[in-house]
Amino acid sequence: MTETAQTRADAGVLAVLLDGEYAALRARARDFLVEHASFHTEAESLDRDAYRDGVRDLVVAAAAQGLTGSGFPAAYGGGDDFGGNVAAFETLAYGDLSVLVKFGVQFGLFGGAIHQLGTTPHHEAWLADIASARLLGSFAMTETGHGSNVQAIRTTATYDAATGEFVIDTPDDDARKDYIGNAARHAQAAAVFAQLVVDGPDGQPENHGVHALFVPLRDASGATLPGVRIEDCGTKLGLQGVDNGRIWFDGVRVPRTNLLNRYGDVSPDGVYSSPIDNPDRRFFTMLGTLVQGRVCVGGAGITASKVALTIATRYAAERRQFGAAGQPETVLLDYGQHQRRLMPLIARTYALHFAQERLARDFHEVFTAGDATTERRRRALESRAAATKSLATWHATRTIQECREACGGAGYLAVNRFAALKADTDVFTTFEGDNTILLQLVGKGRLTDLKDEFGSLDGVAMARYVGRQAAETLAEKVIARSVIERVRDAARGHDEGEPGGDLLDPAYQLRMLRTREERITGSVARRLKAGMDAGVDPAEVFSRCQHHLLAAASAHAERIVLEALLTKVEAMPAGPERDLLAKVGHLHALSEIERDRAWWMEHGRLSTERAKSVTRAVDTLCRELRDDALTLVDAFGVPEPLLTQEI
Amino acid sequence: MTETAQTRADAGVLAVLLDGEYAALRARARDFLVEHASFHTEAESLDRDAYRDGVRDLVVAAAAQGLTGSGFPAAYGGGDDFGGNVAAFETLAYGDLSVLVKFGVQFGLFGGAIHQLGTTPHHEAWLADIASARLLGSFAMTETGHGSNVQAIRTTATYDAATGEFVIDTPDDDARKDYIGNAARHAQAAAVFAQLVVDGPDGQPENHGVHALFVPLRDASGATLPGVRIEDCGTKLGLQGVDNGRIWFDGVRVPRTNLLNRYGDVSPDGVYSSPIDNPDRRFFTMLGTLVQGRVCVGGAGITASKVALTIATRYAAERRQFGAAGQPETVLLDYGQHQRRLMPLIARTYALHFAQERLARDFHEVFTAGDATTERRRRALESRAAATKSLATWHATRTIQECREACGGAGYLAVNRFAALKADTDVFTTFEGDNTILLQLVGKGRLTDLKDEFGSLDGVAMARYVGRQAAETLAEKVIARSVIERVRDAARGHDEGEPGGDLLDPAYQLRMLRTREERITGSVARRLKAGMDAGVDPAEVFSRCQHHLLAAASAHAERIVLEALLTKVEAMPAGPERDLLAKVGHLHALSEIERDRAWWMEHGRLSTERAKSVTRAVDTLCRELRDDALTLVDAFGVPEPLLTQEI
After folding, report:
1. Does A644 reach chain B within 8 Å, measured CB to CB?
2. Nearest-CA residue of chain A relative to B537?
3. If you ran DSSP here, which 8-state letter would residue A573 be given?
C-alpha cells in the first residue's frame, strides 16, 4: 500500500465534500430533524392513527419551513430547483422514515405527477396548495393485480361527451388501487392512473392507454366522496406512520379538464390527441417524467446505510469482548473479521454516495432543460436512476442487517434504531420500481443501444461499441484528463489476456469493471440472438437468458458507481482526505473484484495468483482503514440527537 | 441431466420422509398450532401486556398437551426423549415465534439448566413444576457487558458460611442481566449465572468461576422479591410477545443448596469441590450441557425458511406479470430469474433439514448416554450444533428476505406473514451463540483436533488427517457403502489436479467440498503457526487470520450439510421421490460450488471451462425443478390454517 497519510484526515473536511453544493439546504433539513428529534420516541406510545397524524403534522411543518418545494416552479412557492428536492429528501432520511415516505408521496409523487403530467391550468389550480401541504394527495398507480407492469393496469377513465366528464371505474378487486400512500387517512385527492377510453369515430370505444387524472377523494370533513371506497392496507412490515390504502372507484365523475394532459388530451367533443403518436413511446415518456421518485429512494437507502454504519462502527470502537488473560478485553474493531464486516460496507457507501450525487446532478440538468433535453439524455438518466436505485437499496438492506448483527442483542432493541431502519427501508427494494425489474430495464437498455447502432446484435462490434460509449461518457464529464488517458492507454495495451498494472491503480480497477460489462453484455446479446435465430419461443429465450441479462445490468451498474467514486477522488485537492478516500476507493473496487473474481478468472482476465492477491489486498486495506473508521462515519453527518441510542 | 422421473414425485411421500421418526409428535404439534391458528391475528389487536399474557397462556396450554416435556425425565412428567423435544420445538416454529421462544426459555433454557446443571434434589424440587409450566422461569446468563464472553460475566454469588447462604450481587450496570426472556413479566425464578466466590483457607475470597444458582425472583402475587430489581427491555425488533427484561441483584440471599451443583459444590463450612479440576474445562463442560438451545434455534430457522418459501413459491405459481402482447401474462415461476431466486433456496432448505435431523439424532444419542458418552463425542456434537445453527439461521434471514422481495408490495403487508417472520427470526443469528463466534469455535475446534493429533500444526500431515477424519465420520454412520467407496476411490484417483467425474456425481460434489475444507484448514493452521513462530503478538496473529479461520469453519459446515443430504438421498428407495431429491441435491451442491467457484479455481481444482459448466448446470437444474416446486414446498407440511395469507 503506497499511500500513507502525513496527517489524519479530518471528518469535517470530508463532511463538506459529502454535503456538496446543497450544503446549506442539507443543514436546514438537519436542523429540522434535530428540532423534531424526540418524535420517534414519542411515536412509540401513540396508537396508529395518532402516529399517522403526527407524521402528517411533520410533513406540513417541513412544508412551512420551505423544505418541500425545491422542485416546484417558483411561481407556486417552489424553488425551481430539482436537485434541491433530492438533497432535501436524502437528508430527511436521517430521521423517521414514515415522515420521509409521506413527504415523498405528497411532494414527489402526487405533486410530481401534477407538475410533470399536467399543464399550466393544473399547476395554477393545485401546485401552490400541494407545495404548502394545504392539499394532501395520493399517487394512485399500482393495482393489486399490476405493480411492475403498469401498462396493464385495468382501472378505466371513460369519456362521456354528453356531460364533458371522465368516468372512473374499478372493474374488479384485482384492479383496485393498492398500497397507495396517504390514501387510508389523509389524501383529499389523487393522481389516478387509468386506461383512457374514448369513443372513436365509429362510436366504438377506443383505448388510448394509461393516463393520469386529478380525482378528488374526500370532502372537507374527510368523508370519502360518492363512488369512492377506501380501505386501510392494515399493518405492514414497517412504515406504520404511512396510511397506505386501497381504493375502488365506481362511476366517479371528474371534469374533462382534470385529465393531466401534457402527453394526451381529449377535446370537448371527444377527440383524442397527443404530441406523441406511438402509444408505447407515449407511455414510457410519461413514466420517464416520474423518475424523481426512483432518484430519491436510492438516496434514502444510502442515508439509512450511513445511520446504521455510524451506530455499528461507534459500538465496535467501544465494545470489548474476549481477549488475552489478564489484559483488558479486545475492542471489536480490532478483530480482523469485524473490520472485514464493516469496512467494505463503509467504502461502498461512499461509492454509492458519489454515484447518487452524479445521478442527482443529471436529473437536475435534464429536468431543468425540460423539453430542450434530448431523448438520449432522458434515456441515459432513466437507466442511471434504475441502476443506482437498485444497488443503493439492496446495499441498505444488506448493510442494516450486517450492522444489526454486529451489535448483537443490543442491536435487537428498538431503542438502538435498527428495528425501524430495517423494517422501514425493507420496501425500498421493491417500490418505486422492483429492483429486479429495474435492472432488467437497464440490461434491455444496453441491448437497445447496441441494436440501434448496428441494426443487429453482433457481439464483436458491440463490445467495441460499448467500450467507446463508456469512454465518451467519461469524456463528457469532469473526470481529470489523466485518468482518461491512463484508461485509454491501458485499454490499448492490455485489451486481451492477463492485465498488468498495480491493483491499486484506479485505471486498472475501472478497466476490470468495464471489461466485465462489455463482455457480459456482448455475450447475452449473442445468446438472445442465437435463440431467436433458432426459432425458439421468444419468452423461453428470454427466460433462459434473464439471469445473464441481469448480470450484464449489474456489471454496468457497478462500473458507473466505481467511476463516480474515482472521478470524485481524482478531482480532490491533495491532502490527507484525498489519500483516505483514495484508499476507500481501492477497498471498494477490490472488494467488488474479489466478490466476482471467478468471472474474471473464467474469462482470462485474472490469473489465479493475482486473484489471491486481490483477497490479500482487501484484508490489508480493511486493516489499514481501521483507524479512520470513526472519521469516515463521522463525516456522514448523522445529526447527533438522532443517535441517542443506548449502545 | 440423466434423471427423468417416470412419474411425478408425491408431496405426501416426501412429507413422511421429512417428518421422520417423530412424525406422530410433529402431528400433535401441528394440531396444536391449528387449534390456536387465530392467535396471531387476534394478537394484533392486543396491547403488549395482553399479548404477552396470551403467549404465556399458549405455553401453558402446550404443556398441558404434553408437548413440552419430551426432554425431561419421565419421573417428572417428561418423556426421557431428548430428540422429541427438538422435534416439538422445530414443529411449533411454524406458528407464532414469540410462543416458540417463550417455550424455549421455559423448558429448554430454564428447565434445561435445572436438569443438566442440577442434581436429584433440584430435580425433585422443581422439574415437575417446570415441565408442567406451573413454575415459570428465566435463564439469567447474559449481561449488558458480556454476551458472547460468558466466562467474564461479573455478577457474583458469594458464600456466607455463617448463614449457609449465597449472596447474589450485581456490581454495576454493566453486569446487570440483560435481554432475559420471561423476566420482565412472568418468571417466578431464574437460573442465575454468577462468579462463585468462597473464602479460601486463608480467609481470602477465591473465585471458582461461573456457576448457576436457582434464584426466586417474584412472590406469589407477582411482586419482585427484596433485592431484586427488574426492568423491561422495551420494544424490540421482533418477538414482542416475549417479556425480555433486565435484572439487578442487591444482596439477594439463597440457601446453599440452591447452587446447581452437578459440576461444582460448596460444603456447609465453605469448601469448594468439583469433579472437574481444570476451571476452563469445567466451564466449557457446563456450557456444553446447554447445547440444546443451539440445536433448537437452528431447527426453528429452517422451519421459518419453509414457511417463507411456501408462501413465495405458491405466489410465484399464481402471480402473472408482463408477457407477450395478446397472450395471458407470464407466471412468475416461468421466469428464469425467479427460478434462480427460489429454487436454490428450496434445495438448501432440504439440505439443512437433513443436516438438522442428523444433529438432533447426535444430540439425542449423546444426552441419552449421559455420563457414558465420551469427551470426543460431546465435542463433536457441540461443533456440529454450532456449524448447523450458524448456517441454518443465516439461511433463514436470507431466505425470508428473498421471499419477501419476490412477493413485492404484497410481501410487505403484515397479513402475508413476512413481517413477523423477518422481525422474529432476526435475532436467531446472534442469540444462543453469535453465529460468527460459533463458527470461530468450529474453526478452533478443527485446529485443536489437528494439534491434539500431531502436537504441532504441520500442514501436510494435517490435511491428510482431516481427510481421514471425515471418512471415519462417514463410516460411523448409516451412509450406504456405495457412496463411501465411490468417495474413497475418487479420492485415491483424483487427489491432485483437475478433478474428473460428472458434475452430477454426488461423490464428485462431496469431494470438492472436502478438498476445500482440508486445504483451508491446513493453510490457516500454517499461517497461525508462522505468525506465532515469528514472535508476532498472538492477538494480532489471530486478528489477521480470523477471516481465514471462519472460511475454514464455513467450509467444514458446508461439507457436513451436503454430506447429510447425500446420505439421506442414498438411503431412499428408488422412485420418483428419490429422483427428485437427487436433483435437489445436485442443485444444492452445485449452487455452493458456483458461489465459491473462485476458490477451487485459485487452488487448481476447477478449470475455468468447468466452472462455467457449473453455472450452466445450476441454470438447467433450476429450470428442470420448476415443475416440482410446489411439490417440494407442499412437502414441508406447513399447516394450511397458518397459510391464510391474502396473496
Report:
1. no
2. A324
3. P
Amino acid at B324: A
d(CA B510, CA B483): 10
pTM reported for the whole predicted model: 0.92
**Cell (9 digits) for B422:** 423477518
Domain A293-634: CATH class, spelled out: mainly alpha
CB A122 within 8 A of CB A42: no
Per-residue pLDDT tens digits for B171-209: 999 999 999 999 999 999 999 999 999 999 999 999 999
Q: What is the DSSP letter of B184?
A: T
DSSP strand E in B430-553: where? none
Question: Residue B306's pLDDT band (boundaries 50, 70, 90)?
Answer: very high
Say what the ipTM of the complex is: 0.91
- Nearest Cα neighbor of A414 from A96, A627, A78, A51 is A96
The topology (CATH level 3) of B137-278 is: Butyryl-CoA Dehydrogenase, subunit A; domain 2 (2.40.110)
Question: What does the pLDDT look like over A535-593, one tens digit per residue?
Answer: 988 888 999 999 999 999 999 999 999 999 999 999 999 999 999 999 999 999 999 99
Tell me the percentage of chain A whose pLDDT exceeds 70. 91
Pick among 1.10.540.10, 3.40.50.300, 2.30.30.100, 1.20.1260.10: CATH of B11-131: 1.10.540.10
Cβ pairs bridging A and B (under 8 Å): 193
Beta strand B137-140 with B189-199: parallel, antiparallel or unpaired? parallel
CA distances (Å), origin B425, targets A61, A623, B259, B399: 37, 32, 33, 11
- Judged by CB atoms closer than 8 Å, whether chains meet at B337 and A550 is answered as yes
Give chain B's end-to-end CA distance (angstroms, integer): 34
Contacting B residues, span 179-218, partner chain A, CB-CB under 8 Å: 179
- For residue B164 the three cell numbers come to 449457609
Q: Is A325 on the interface with B (CB under 8 A)?
A: no
Q: Is B480 on the interface with A (CB under 8 A)?
A: no
Query: Considering only residues 96 to 135 of chain B, which have any Cβ-Cβ distance to chain A shorter than 8 Å?
Result: none
The answer to whether the CB of B207 falls within 8 A of the CB of B145 is no
Q: How far apart are CA A200 and CA A392, in angstroms?
A: 46
Closest CA to A113 of A263, A219, A279: A263
Q: Is B169 helix (H, G, I), strand (E, B) or coil?
A: strand
